What does this fold into?
Amino acid sequence: MARDDRRPDQESAARYRTMVAKRSQGIPSAYLLGEREFFGRSFVVDHRVLVPRPETEHLVETALDYARPGAATLDLGTGSGCVGLSIALESREAHDQWRALRVTCTDRSLAALAVCRTNRRRLGLENDVDLICADLDSGFDLTAFEVIVSNPPYVDPDDSSLDDAVRRYEPHDALFPSPLPDEDASALAFYRRLFGSTTNVPAGTVVIVEIGIGQGDEIVEIAQPRFDLLSRRRDYAGIERVLVLTRKADAGQATAS
It folds into this structure.
């Protein structure tokens, strides 16, 4: 309609009709186009990773608020890398190269990490961001990071309000928590694992997590008594979406210091 003076060639018209048919089946448009904008930049996305959401941009903003220049920063469960790579780029633009945040992106899915690697290359961050395939703290030392950021799987598998297209086409490992054997299978399972794995991080370590609707108070309770709540942040719809917590100085840490 915008270019009614031009007629598409047969190949383009056929490709367009195929995409419309797939979209009518519920396949996310970002998967059909192969990209989605996040924090003002284009990220490659496909069925291996979640489609980046606008509310997740608050994780980037919050990390930049709390991380001092040069701080070692971890994006835990990076998926497409939209959070960790955006943090690295924003930090590099705000500071000189030597004072920018040092970012590491991890994911337990090699397939997801391959997408992140593609985005890292496209954004020119191959020398600035490390990639590690790991589940939580397996294979690397969490105590090496001053800021830990995560948009974890927090959707209840029994949530009837979840869009059917999301349930059908986006990766379940990134949507629904996968509890360890004999642990709860609730939407909060990942947070229990996360805060159980961060008990040895130094006092002052900041943990920033995205949360689901109405989960805030329960997650704060899970994090206590080892973590203090620093702040809560709401998304563009006014829904509480991000929690910021910091590791307390316990008796042993206080004595060591």
